[in-house]
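ARCHIVE CARD
CATEGORY: sequence design from structure
SOURCE FIELD: tokenized fold
FIELD CONTENT:
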């Protein structure tokens, strides 16, 4: 989809990549360092934000997520999440479901590598 992302340049090394064409109007941030670039959040997954990010830098891009939605993890295959953490997350969600806690407002559940807010 052409023109899905809107790019705002804060300075030569700081960019905001926004998805204004979706009602959530999400924002990701690309910070260009001396050796690498850091992509903070990875968008909705409707279009490939990584392809947009690499247009803004000549350095390798590392992705980090401030939060994730399990249904969007696998399309975002460039995130640096170890598979064993994904397995633990999957198991945690299954446990919450079996305990009847997989619904809005049921609490905050802290694990070794992640937190689930419901």
């Amino acid at each position: 989809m052409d023109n899905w992302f809107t790019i705002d340049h804060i300075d030569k090394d700081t960019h905001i990549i926004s998805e204004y064409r979706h009602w959530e109007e999400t924002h990701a941030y690309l910070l260009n360092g001396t050796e690498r670039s850091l992509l903070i959040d990875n968008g909705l997954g409707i279009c490939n934000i990584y392809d947009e990010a690499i247009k803004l830098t000549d350095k390798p891009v590392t992705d980090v997520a401030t939060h994730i939605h399990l249904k969007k993890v696998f399309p975002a295959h460039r995130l640096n999440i170890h598979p064993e953490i994904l397995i633990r997350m999957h198991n945690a969600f299954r446990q919450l479901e079996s305990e009847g806690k997989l619904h809005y407002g049921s609490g905050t559940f802290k694990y070794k590598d992640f937190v689930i807010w419901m």
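CARD ANNOTATION: The two ends are 33 Å apart (CA to CA). Residues 82-118 form one domain.
SHELF: design records, drawer C
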